[in-house]
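Service request form, structural biology core

Requester: graduate student, group of Dr. S.
Request type: structure prediction, single chain
Budget code: on file
Notes: please return the result as structure tokens.

Sequence provided:
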Amino acid sequence: MAKTTKEERILVLCVDRDNDLGVKGELKTPLLGREENLAAAVHLALRDPEEPDANAMFEAVRIYDRLIREAETPDNYQIATIAGSELGDVGADRKLVSQLIEVLKTFPASDVILVTDGYSDEAVLPLVESR
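Core staff response, request fulfilled:
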């Protein structure tokens, strides 16, 4: 059984650095909560069934569901998806950081479980760790 202390608040964070959610899915981020993330993942997968970010979002929902199922305090968990920019580089990173700060204002997490499509892990990890 997953146990958390009172201070422990875990955010399952899905990151779409190149903003396929916005470009292909015409969706605005950040997305907060299970239903919003699941609906966006389905929407993106229907637009492009081979889109890796949709798979990453489904994996984030799966992880979140498992944590909630095993949790003594489900309120200590949240799921969110943030997106950068299709232009990449510093602009994408700034947008990611801005959206992460917005999410953390709503849900002040002590820990993050990072889920990505694997494409930009090296660039995203330091941004998340710094916050």
